[in-house]
Design brief:
The complex is a heterodimer of chains A (993) and B (124). Chain A has 41 helices and 34 strands. By secondary structure, chain A is an alpha+beta fold. Chain A folds into 6 domains: 113 residues, Beta-Lactamase (2-Layer Sandwich), CATH 3.30.450; 134 residues, PAS domain (Beta-Lactamase), CATH 3.30.450; 145 residues, PAS domain (Beta-Lactamase, 2-Layer Sandwich); 131 residues, PAS domain (Beta-Lactamase); 134 residues, 2-Layer Sandwich (Beta-Lactamase); 238 residues, Histidine kinase-like ATPase, C-terminal domain (Heat Shock Protein 90, 2-Layer Sandwich), CATH 3.30.565. In chain A, a hairpin with a 5-residue loop joins strand 19 and strand 20. Chain B is an alpha/beta fold and 124 residues long. In chain B, strands 2-1-3-4-5 form a 5-stranded parallel β-sheet, sandwiched between helices. The radius of gyration of chain B is 13 Å and the shape is globular. Chain B has a single domain, classed as Rossmann fold. The chains are: A alpha+beta (993), B alpha/beta (124). Chains A and B meet through helix 35 and helix 36 of A and helix 1 and helix 5 of B.
Chain lengths: 993, 124
């Protein structure tokens, strides 16, 4: 996997957009994901100003952001951009500042991910496809080796105290075949099958030994490296193919940290590269130039001092250098100090130094941190063994003390040891290592998919096609794209010249009828005319020397049915007339995707057009925040907020509005959805407690929340309504919650007005009722006033006597006080009825209210010669009501009864008041009389406004009683079912809870 | 002013009755209070009684009815009537029945004393 020299390729494998630009904003790198995301080809982006291409709208002034990046090295935020087609994009961008060896900022690397909702699905799809293609068509043969059986062998050796495996193998040559036989190929990818010329992957399973027949030293060294605990080993070697021929490959093996008994082995076909390297070696001058041009640090070192030291220990009887180095790291450090730097190239100055080459021309010890001591030792040991070269990754130290990962390569000119200088190369692989980590992780993820996927493979021969193209070119065709469009016949010829050499079983199953030979014809067999443009694109890509081409198209089975397919063709790099094509049936996936899209569209439509305000919140940060609080042991969030008010702000800031619908935009006074997206803070200025309640309910693991609340709008209004928030676990995990707000401002205002009107009417009715009771009221007040006047006069007279009688006066004065209080009580009762005020609902005992009414009506009852009997129930639930209005109802019903009986000529006039609990939740009160009852017309219109049987009556009493009772959630009715022969009125009220 | 004589007071309102008894006593007469006309008639105080002060509206026999009852039995007792509910025509009714005085609550104590003086003076 040595792809360091071609960083872009690695960037292209990354699903995220990566843009590198210099400090002036000129784009230096633009990966495939950026092309896909912004619709701008790399060629069009490179060298341009980023702002010209991306037209970025930043969340804060860009000058501030740039300053922050220069100060802190990173920045992260959401920016708005537009694709080349003008589609709006929302990008989560991460900026990282890269500095040169001297710490000067050079570039800004932006990693971008679209957070535009519609893009997500597509990206997911695209990335899935990229990974799939990556594994299959990556020009790296991948092999998974089961090395579990080697583990006990190693254990045995370690138990015996063997530290140097090489020495052990030297002494016990039979160990090597045992170790090699312990390693089995378990799984290979298609590329590997190609490299080794196998027919199927399964054919390659089994002992690894057969592939290393010509490379025993390599496999031996890889086993030794593994024994020494080296994580990554790579070497060029000659691999033996299935047919016995050999091929130059770069062999690399890495142990994925977690699974020690599995090794991932990569083979890269380097035949072509080897050839070119041979050419390069022809001239030392050209060789030097190549290194100068390469992004590699290059050192000319003089080992003579180190050699002298080593000769000394060899003389003293040491035979195993590696063992000696391991045991004596200080000795190795001393060797480093004696290893002189003769010359370095400019890259080295840039990578290691501070601009002054002379600084580097000392000894090498300063560049090797402690942890890399043994790498130096190993490199030296390799040289002593006259291996041609040694290459490994290790950590280096710059002159300023900072560390970095480098790919260290040392090449030893044959027989040059000790006689001259040695060339050493170092390549900065810090960035590559990170990509590789990601790559490894994705490979691991891919394993299961690899097994499950059935791919149809076609081996095709383009010889005839190339001949056709050559002839066309000779006849003057330059633009083949146009030529294909203008000449469908030519395209048809091309297809007929694309010969199918071989297909796999999967192809027979997918396309054919069980007979492979039926398919070994030309490709027009399976390409329906509608898909020819796609095929033309594939051919064009080969003309542009692209390594591969992928397209989603429609192909035809032998039975004529057409299906959706993912088609990839990979051109052999050394033989452009051969190609491998892979076809995957994506009918199901396409259908599923289309279904998903339709469903998504339906929900989106619904979301946007529902007549209630809807919000989608991104609360992933909130979840993290809450997790932190839980980790701190916070159980009661509300209490926590009391003592940490800042955390409430933090929690609020952790929630962002991600999407809103039209109703929400309208209600909250935005011009468009973008006005509302982002912080939730502006809306909660009036209802912090509701926000706290939501957070609490969420913290307590509830799945939804609802509360009547008031929210502020962007244009400064306050809207009232029902706020609901749903965070079901499935959405919660994605950090999404769905919220709605049903505006009740108008409804609440109307209700409030209604209450006012009702209260006004109730008051008017009370005043009118007081009018009817004027005579009684006057008597009630005059009685104590008369008593006071009489007492006062009497007192004055006792005082006016020659010997004032103080005893009498004291007695009289006490009475005056008592009468005055009595008068005040009467007046306050009347005032209570007469005053207009907003109803106040409180928990009341009905018994108390009725006794007050009886007191109030005492004189009226007496003067009318009526007897009221009150039968309170032994226990009735309290009711929630306004005291005055409830009194008003009872007074009204009692006065009605008395007036009805006034017309009766003689006999006793009786009223019976009862209370009862009809059930636990309801109180019932009845008022019966023994008057004439209600006539049929009256029964039907009893509670109608302006209906009255009384001369001078307004006809408002009973309607007001009904509106009062109903406003309290109760019912009122009237009939002639009195137990004492007249009319009966009943009302019920719900018990106070 | 004449010597001490018994004035009987009938009112169903306890506090007003007590106030009137006190007022009458303060001017030097003896006074007894009754809560209803019936109670007064049954008490036997009628023989010693020189003047009657009564509320008109009372449960049972009203003040006017009491005067008519006494007149019907040729008992010529001066009766001063008081009312807390001056319904229209009530004063005429009271005068027609032969009331020695008619007052609306609340009333001036001097007015009652004036009526008393006249009533008791006329007897003596």
């Amino acid at each position: 996997m040595a792809m360091a020299s071609d960083g872009l390729e690695i960037l292209d494998l990354v699903a995220e957009s990566i843009i590198v630009r210099d400090l002036e904003g000129r784009i230096q790198a633009w990966n495939a994901a950026s092309e896909a995301l912004y619709g701008v080809p790399r060629a069009a982006a490179l060298g341009k100003l980023a702002q010209d291409i991306l037209k970025t709208a930043y969340p804060s002034p860009v000058s501030e952001i740039e300053r922050a990046v220069l100060e802190t090295g990173t920045w992260e935020g959401e920016v708005r951009r537009a694709s080349a087609e003008g589609a709006p994009l929302k990008i989560l961008a991460r900026w990282a500042l890269r500095r040169d060896g001297e710490g000067y900022p050079i570039t800004i690397v932006e990693t971008g991910r679209s957070v535009t909702e519609s893009k997500r699905l597509e990206e997911l799809e695209a990335s899935e496809r990229r990974y799939r293609d990556l594994f299959h068509y990556m020009p790296i043969g991948l092999t998974q080796v089961d090395a579990s059986r080697i583990v006990p062998l190693f254990k045995e050796l370690r138990a015996q105290g063997v530290t140097d495996l090489k020495a052990h193998i030297d002494a016990h040559p039979d160990f090597l075949p045992r170790a090699i036989d312990a390693m089995l190929v378990e799984e290979v990818n298609e590329q590997n099958v190609q490299i080794f010329g196998a027919q199927t992957a399964a054919e390659m399973h089994g002992p690894v030994s057969r592939y290393f027949q010509a490379a025993m030293p390599t496999i031996r060294r890889s086993i030794e490296a593994r024994y020494a605990g080296v994580e990554f080993f790579q070497e060029e070697m000659k691999a033996t193919r299935m047919d016995g021929s050999v091929v130059d490959v770069l062999f690399a093996t890495a142990r994925p940290g977690a699974i020690a008994d599995k090794s991932l082995v990569g083979f890269i076909d380097i035949t072509a590269r080897k050839k070119s390297e041979e050419g390069l070696r022809q001239s030392e001058y050209r060789y030097r130039n190549m290194f100068q041009a390469m992004a590699a640090s290059f050192w000319e070192l003089d080992f003579s001092g180190a050699n002298e030291l080593v000769r000394g220990v060899l003389k003293s009887g040491v035979t195993n250098l590696r063992q000696y180095f391991l045991a004596n790291p200080d000795f190795v450090r001393e060797m480093m100090k004696r290893t002189r730097v003769v010359d370095v190239n400019d890259q080295t100055v840039a990578l290691f130094g501070r601009g002054d080459k002379q600084e580097l021309l000392g000894n090498v010890e300063v560049f090797w941190p402690e942890e890399s001591t043994q790498v130096y030792a190993e490199a030296y040991a390799h040289a002593a063994e006259q291996a041609p070269n040694y290459s490994t990754e290790c950590r280096f130290r710059r002159i300023d003390g900072s560390l970095f990962d480098g790919l260290f390569t040392v090449a030893y000119p044959p027989r040059e040891m000790g006689r001259g200088t040695t060339m050493v190369g170092v390549i900065d692989v810090t960035a590559r290592k990170q990509s590789e980590e990601a790559l490894r992780a994705s490979e691991r993820r891919y394993q299961s998919l690899f097994q499950a996927m059935a791919v149809s493979f076609w081996e095709v021969d383009f010889t005839g096609v190339r001949e056709l193209l050559r002839r066309a070119r000779a006849s003057g065709v330059i633009d083949f794209g146009q030529h294909f469009t203008d000449n469908p016949g030519f395209l048809r010829d091309i297809m007929r010249e694309t010969r199918v050499v071989d297909v796999n079983d999967q192809t027979v199953a997918l396309f054919g009828r069980g007979i492979k030979e039926e398919l070994l014809k030309t490709t027009d067999l399976v390409w329906p005319e509608e898909s020819w443009p796609d095929y033309a694109q594939a051919i064009l890509s080969s003309l542009e020397n692209k390594p591969s081409f992928s397209v989603e198209t429609r192909l035809r089975r032998l039975d004529g049915t057409i299906f959706d397919a993912h088609f990839t063709v990979w051109y052999s790099p050394d033989n452009r007339t051969a190609g491998l094509a892979g076809v995957i049936d994506i009918t199901e996936r396409k259908r599923a995707h289309a279904e998903l899209e339709r469903s998504n569209e339906r929900y989106r439509h619904l979301f946007h057009h529902l007549p209630i305000a809807l919000f989608q919140m991104d609360s992933s940060n909130l979840l993290a925040f809450m997790q932190d609080l839980r980790a701190q042991g916070v159980t009661d969030l509300d209490r926590h907020f009391d003592s940490n008010p800042d955390d409430l702000t933090r929690a609020m800031e952790a929630v962002k509005i991600a999407e809103v619908n039209h109703s929400a935009v309208r209600l909250f006074g935005g011009r468009d959805a973008d006005d509302l997206i982002g912080s939730i803070a502006p809306y909660w200025t009036t209802s912090k407690q509701t926000l706290r309640n939501i957070l609490n309910s969420r913290y307590n693991g509830e799945e939804s929340f609802r509360e009547e609340t008031k929210l502020a709008t962007l244009d400064g209004r306050v809207v009232e309504g029902l706020f609901t928030s749903a965070f079901p676990p499935a959405l919660s995990e994605m950090g999404i919650s769905v919220n709605s707000f049903v505006d009740a401002t108008e409804k609440n205002r109307a209700e409030e007005m209604l209450q006012h009107v009702q209260a006004d009417f109730a008051h008017a009715a009370r005043v009118s009722m007081l009018g009817e009771l004027t005579a009684s009221i006057a008597h009630e007040v005059n009685q104590p006033l008369a008593a006071i006047a009489a007492n006062g006069e009497a007192g004055l007279r006792w005082l006016a006597r020659p010997e004032p009688d103080v005893v009498e006066v004291r007695e009289l004065t006490k009475r005056i006080v008592a009468d005055a209080r009595r008068a005040a009580d009467v007046i306050s009762r009347i005032r209570g009825m007469a005053v207009r005020r907003a109803p106040e609902h409180a928990s009341l005992a009905i018994d108390e209210v009725i006794r007050e009414v009886l007191l109030f009506l005492r004189h009226e009852v007496q003067s009318r010669g009526v007897t009221i009997t009150y039968h309170p129930a032994r226990s009735v639930p309290p009711v929630r009501a306004d005291r005055t209005q409830l009194q008003q109802v009872i007074v009204n019903l009692a006065v009605n009864a008395m007036q009805a009986m006034a017309n009766a000529s003689d006999g006793s006039r009786n009223i019976v008041i009862r209370t009862a609990a009809s059930d636990d939740a309801t109180m019932v009160c009845s008022i019966e009389d023994n008057g004439p009852g209600i006539d049929a017309v009256g029964l039907a219109r009893l509670f109608d406004s302006f209906f009255t049987t009384k001369e001078g009556g307004m006809g408002m009493g009973l309607p007001i009683c009904r509106s009062i009772i109903e406003a309290h959630g109760g019912r009122i009715s009237g009939d002639n079912c009195s137990t004492i022969g007249g009319a009966r009125f009943m009302f019920s009220l719900p018990a106070a809870t | 002013m004449s010597a001490s004589q018994l004035v009987c007071i009938i009112d169903d309102d306890d506090s007003l009755r007590a106030a009137l008894v006190g007022l009458v006593r303060s001017v030097g007469h003896e006074a007894r209070g009754f809560e209803s006309a019936e109670a007064f008639l049954q008490s036997g105080a009628i023989d010693a009684c020189a003047c009657l002060v009564t509320d008109i509206q009372m449960p049972g026999m009203t003040g006017v009815e009491l005067k008519e009852y006494l007149s019907a039995r040729q008992i010529d007792l001066p009766v001063i009537m008081i009312t807390g509910r001056p319904d229209p025509g009530l004063e005429e009714k009271a005068r027609a029945a032969g009331a020695a005085g008619f007052m609306k609550k609340p009333f001036e104590a001097s007015a009652l004393i004036g009526y008393l003086d006249r009533a008791l003076g006329s007897v003596s």
